Amino acid sequence: MKKSILILFTIICSLSCLAQTKLDSIQNLDEVILSDSKLKTFTNTQSVLKITDSVIKKQNALLTHLLNSNTPIYFKENGYGMVSSASFRGTTAQQTAVVWNGININSQLNGQTDFSTVNTEIFDNIDVRSGGGSVLYGSGAIGGSVHLNNEIRYNNENTNYISTSFGSFSTINTTYKGHYSTSKLSVNANVSYLQSENDYDYVDSNRSNLNGAFYSNNFGLNLGYKINDNNILKVYSSFYDGQRHFALQTSTETPSKYKNRDTRNLIEYVGLTDKFTSKLKVAYITENYKYFSNIARDTYTDGDVNSLILKYDLSYKLDDNITINPVIDYTQNSGKGSSINKVKRDVTGFNLLYKHNIGERFLYEITTRQEITNNYNSPLLYSLGLKYSFSDLYTLSINGSKNYRVPTFNDLYWQDGGNLNLKPENSYQIEIGNVFTYKNLDLSLTGYYNDIKDMIRWLPTGTIWMPINTDHVKTYGIETALNVKQSFGENHLSLSSTYAYTVSEDQERETQLIYVPYHKATATLSYNYKRLSAYYQQLYVGEVFTQSDNNKKYNIDAYYLSHFGVDYTFGSNKNFRLGAQVNNIFNHNYQSVLGRFMPGTHFNTYLNFNF
Amino acid sequence: MKQFKKIMFLALASAFFLTSCSNDDDSFVDIPSIPLGDYENGYFVLNEGGGSAATNSIIFISNDGTRTNDVFRIENPDAEELGTFIQNIFFDDTRAFIVAGSGSVTVVNRYSFEYITTISTDLEAPRYGVVVNGKAYVTNNGDFGSVTDDFLTVIDLSNYSTSQVLIGNYLDRISAVGDKVITTNNQYGTEHSVSIVDTNTLTVTDVDLGNGNTSNSIAVVNDDVYVLTGSGKFIEIDVVNNTVANTLDIPASITNTKNLDIDNDTVYFTSDASVYSFNLGETTVSETPIITYQSDSAYGVMYGFAVNNDIIYIGDGADFSSNGTFYEYSTSGELLSENVAGVAPNGFYFN
């Protein structure tokens, strides 16, 4: 709580600074520095799908909905706004890493991120990186990783943005973002509040969503200060506090609720010399949850983990074409909870990254990581990637890697049953990417194969359940993305679309993993004319199995969703934007998780104000 | 009860016989000439289901072997789902009470399975129930994080009103004898007592079974109460003096004993994939099982178990994420039938 007050105080201070500063007339070139620089320098041979802030602003604030509509990742959602997990390239919920400004933030307790607890509004852009990335992004980067980025710009600008939206089911979202910068200092503050009664009627039914209300608060502050041209200091901090009542499947269920609070703080020092870039990062991340199995009671079960991460990263340019980058990091997690005694774990890791450009057309990159820890046997992780541009039209890339997902606190220390002898889940994978670029058209086509062993599942041994390294899954498939832009005078059209074909086969049962559709497609067609813009969005999610024997009786039908939105910019300085959205236009009755009905046609209106 | 049913059946059969013989006389039409319901003679297989309410199911097997899947949904297409994790069915003379772990007891006609009502007050993680003198008593785990909040729900079956009796000890199975109900405590923990509740005064008395003796199943025969512990103790409880009356030690070679049932004065229980038996009153237990069945299930072995009229019923939970299997065996160990169950078959209930 003290921390949140401190953050609030800092935000208020920075706001008053903003108010006093006059707009600097000197316009420098935009200089953007992402903390997650590895996404640029060492991700040349895998595909990265970029979601810009204009796309973020079109969607509602929940990360699960943004990614479901714009990426090939499949999402489960226990009813609208409820617990949500990802399956990326046919992998499990723990095999997608979520990365906040370069730091892996998957829960140390259960190994995954609940995509309904991330508010997208406070981020400047979001990247989705397909395929293995455990060397760079740690545990869980097997199917791929999702990168939540805040930008720090030194552009002598002073801007404020307020967005307020009101939609169906009494959903309210208010966001403020302030940016103040000189050529040396950059201050970026954000506040977002989201709440919903979430009491929608089920389609074709007289029932409605019960006990589904939720709210969340976000505060963030991101600072950059250039001490001089060669020394930069950056601070990122974020605070999330949310509560959800868990929606009922049947009206007779005992209502429950869930509260969680996450804080993330990162201080980074960057030192630049002619050939060296050295970075020192210190991050402190906390996660805490409280689950109330009966909202009428005060009793709850809980868990929390505090993580300290130290990282030293030295990038050396041997010449213009070769970059060598060793990284040393140290992570200490300490956790406790209702079923976990206070426990600490330490991991020290050594990375060596190497990139070599040969000529204009060819590059290769090699990354390796070895960890030292007493908690599990950590394998050597590595990746090798090649990229060759045959012409401006066509680029081929190949990437092979070994990745892992480490046992979580629950897996290791749960009482009773935690198993200290667990190995990390590990995966060998290879992918071939093709990128075609022709005028205003980009097409990427990636085929991949992923062999995942020692997957952890809880089994009973005698009277106690224990997690065991047991399952073996092979996934393979195709991911494609097509982007086209075309202008006719002042009419601008753009199409961005994805399609994924995914096979994920349990090797023992010889069946498709549950909740992995064979097909998923997304498409957004955007239109812009002067101050008017509109979009039409289509989502297709194929049929999924919900039973391990692939018993069709319990399959969830494929679903189509169609959304439409339009907005208009007002004001002499184009300060105001008023917009409206219709979601699930055709009132399609669909479920994301068996027995969890999702809303039919619903609406949202918003007003954005820039000043 | 059985006798009564036979007499009823005879009466109905003869009535039916008479009506069918008389073409002209309409006065017989008013006499009930139909059976009590489609599910009068046979047994139900309760399939717990997974995290989605849609995956639970109740199968009915009639005495002639006819199978009906999904009895509740067939008879009540417009009713709401039963809830998640269907735990138990218990009966009174005319009604069946279906307990869902998500916090409800659904009341249906015992023989037609026609929906009557749903009770969802004073229930929190309910487990098992029993009827005594027009009231139902249902065990509840309450908050899983706390052992001391466990309670009994008392349901007045004349108007379905509810109240709670705090037991303060992890509750699971329940049986009745006379005016008393007896609960087994803390199947998954270290608690080692049973609780006896006098339903007239609602006073609770614990009977200590001794360290390490956690009871997991209970059976009542001829007003005698027996419990089985995972540690291999077959214990008779004296519910008058609230003490342990008798303890029989099962050989130590038989581990993780569970699933006590008593049928025709023979005691049955299971250990892993085997069934053992001995006659009530015997003082030694044979180490030789009467049945060992094959299971691929890592943890759903003997998930459901019952013995009725010399037939042994076994439910195998498979991986709990797909259909299980249920078996009928003779008491001599002969496999009578092997059938596809629903998801997680956890119990057999007889009409």
Helix and strand topology:
The complex is a heterodimer of chains A (611) and B (351).
Chain A: H1 2-20, E1 32-33, H2 38-41, E2 48-51, H3 53-58, H4 63-70, E3 74-77, E4 84-87, E5 96-100, E6 103-104, E7 125-130, H5 134-137, E8 144-149, E9 152-153, E10 158-167, E11 171-181, E12 185-196, E13 214-228, E14 231-246, E15 256-272, E16 276-292, E17 301-319, E18 322-337, E19 340-358, E20 362-372, E21 381-389, E22 394-405, H6 409-413, E23 425-438, E24 441-461, E25 464-488, E26 491-506, E27 511-512, E28 519-529, E29 532-541, E30 559-570, E31 576-583, E32 591-593, E33 596-597, E34 602-610
Parallel strand pairs in A: 5-8
Antiparallel strand pairs in A: 1-9, 2-7, 3-4, 5-6, 7-8, 10-11, 10-34, 11-12, 12-13, 13-14, 14-15, 15-16, 16-17, 17-18, 18-19, 19-20, 20-21, 21-22, 22-23, 23-24, 24-25, 25-26, 26-27, 26-28, 28-29, 29-30, 30-31, 31-34, 32-33
Chain B: H1 2-21, E1 42-47, E2 57-62, E3 67-68, H2 71-75, E4 86-91, E5 95-100, E6 104-109, E7 115-119, E8 126-132, E9 135-140, E10 151-156, E11 161-166, E12 171-177, E13 180-185, E14 193-198, E15 203-208, E16 215-221, E17 224-229, E18 233-238, E19 243-249, E20 258-263, E21 266-271, E22 274-279, E23 291-292, E24 304-308, E25 311-316, E26 323-330, E27 335-343, E28 345-350
Antiparallel strand pairs in B: 1-2, 1-28, 2-3, 4-5, 5-6, 6-7, 8-9, 9-10, 10-11, 12-13, 13-14, 14-15, 16-17, 17-18, 18-19, 20-21, 21-22, 22-23, 24-25, 25-26, 26-27
Structure description:
The complex is a heterodimer of chains A (611) and B (351). By secondary structure, chain A is mostly beta strands. Chain A contains six helices and 34 strands. Chain A has a 22-stranded antiparallel beta barrel. Chain A has a five-stranded mixed sheet with strand order 2-7-8-5-6. A two-stranded antiparallel sheet of chain A has the order 1-9. In chain A, a hairpin with a 2-residue loop joins strand 28 and strand 29 (532-541). Chain A is globular. The model of chain B is unreliable at 1-29 (pLDDT under 50). By secondary structure, chain B is mostly beta strands. In chain B, a hairpin with a 5-residue loop joins strand 6 (104-109) and strand 7 (115-119). Chains A and B meet through loops of A and loops of B.
